[in-house]
User: Fold D-ribulokinase from Peteryoungia aggregata LMG 23059.
Amino acid sequence: MNPADISPEGPPRYVIGVDVGTGSARAGLFDLSGHMLSVAKRDISLFREAGSIVEQSSTEIWNAVCAIIREAVSSAGVDPAQVVGLGFDATCSLVVLGEGGKPLAVGPSEKAERDIIVWMDHRAVGQAERINAMGHEVLRYVGGRISPEMETPKILWLKENRHETFASAWQFFDLADFLTWKSTGDLSRSTCTVTCKWTYLAHEARWDASYFEAIGLGELANENFARIGTEIVEPGTRLGRGLTDEAANAMGLKPGTAVAAGMIDAHAGGIGTVGIGGKPAENLAYVFGTSSCTMTSTVEPVFVPGVWGPYYSAMVPGMWLNEGGQSAAGAAIDQLLSFHPAAGDATEAARLQGKSLPVFVGEVAAGMVSKPSEVVELANGLHVVPEFLGNRAPFADPHARAIVAGLGMERDIDNLVALYVAGLCGIGYGLRQIIETQAKAGASVERVVISGGAGASSMVRQILADACGKPVIAPAADEPVLLGSAILGSVAAGAFPNVRNAMEALSSVASVYAPAGGGVAETHAHRYQAFLSLQDVARRIR
Ligand SMILES: Nc1ncnc2c1ncn2[C@@H]1O[C@H](COP(=O)(O)OP(=O)(O)O)[C@@H](O)[C@H]1O
Ligand SMILES: O=C(CO)[C@H](O)[C@H](O)COP(=O)(O)O
Assistant:
């Protein structure tokens, strides 16, 4: 299908957005006004081992993606020939393939199907520290410090610990780029992935060979970056000749269907939300899933120590991006609840209602108060700094750890609820700290536009608004992250001239959660000071 074939007349056309998160892959089928007709989901495995090792399988993910695309199309009863575009987003995990696209084992299991080092894998903390000690110029564009969650420390880890894998790797991909290559055979990388996670300098359209030489990965530069990306294109760019016969067959779509260069999952959430009001520079995109990401767009680059970026054209084309967040967000709430003596009973009660534990506990909390903002009183005396997986921003400190203060001998569900609320407040104070740090550096925002699985609850949105002090906007789209990747697919298909146009046309506000004033605001101000003190004391103890 050529872009020119899409006309307002003729049969309706559809696009598919695919989102591969940490725990599941989802596909949504959208019409060209941004309405989602169907969604399909598959859970994906995570393999964990000692030493912060977390791995996945690219084969499993690819099979899941093909299956959910088929399911989304058939459950909507749409003719595959009417699907004109496909967009992908995925976690920023590292996929390692040998000759012929063969999966290579990335860890001690020696299992080739474990060929992905997941973004949250912290095996490369030592490599990241050594890179940071070198202080290379490119680090200015990742908030001053490389994170072990980024790809160059991980590849260095492979070279130093699994030399055979490193030497025989044919391609190192960010997961979204792997998916577009599998779909089209096109090895182009997206400016989103390589700028945010690989130190590509999109504002100068180049890699910096001296960085790779300095850190001990000179061979990647000597090969002209053939294993990490020679063609770098903006998200939404139409790749290759669209779907290959093999991929189309696996997905139940037509060969040649347009496939867009993809994005990291959080950034797709940004694309699906920050167009609201036509003012991307005023909107902070907050994607609250397993991790959380804060994404702030500016016209000029703003350097905020400890906040990733500034990245050029990594999310909104032509704008700079600062990206912060918490490495464990939904995952921190899960971890916190799992420690509590009432977790077993509550999990069983949640299961009987077909809900996850945090959703169940959140609903119990909402039922205990007359107004959502009052839930903060349930957490009276309990304080959580939820940094189970380090502080992503504004300290860029992978060694930070969580703090829970104010625990008693309680073992009941009410106390579990209190812990849940305190954990969410802690997430909100982390958000407030990032917003304040960025504002001091010159990147202030007016509102937070929320997406992600944990951001779907209205009580969660209200707690975040109260805790961070900014209005939280819920977009009209039920699945803003999927809408973001569908937007990419629609641009590749030629339905919109560019991503910015599509963003503004397809995103709108559903509801606004204004921060509460009065006593609630005072309580949060007080709790925020406690959060800062606890965080500071923990840092000093270490
Ligand atoms: N109401 C809720 N309150 C707190 N956490 C929640 C809630 N709903 C979902 N979560 C958490 O959000 C995370 C899943 O987010 P989601 O965006 O669906 O996944 P992914 O990050 O894999 O894309 C899980 O950690 C889950 O426990
Ligand atoms: O680092 C990230 C974005 O830059 C994300 O945290 C990562 O991609 C995981 O996303 P999720 O929490 O939605 O599974």
Q: What stands out?
A: The chain is about 40% helix and 20% strand. The domain at 330-433+523-541 is CATH 1.20.58.2240 (Methane Monooxygenase Hydroxylase; Chain G, domain 1). The longest strand covers residues 24-31.
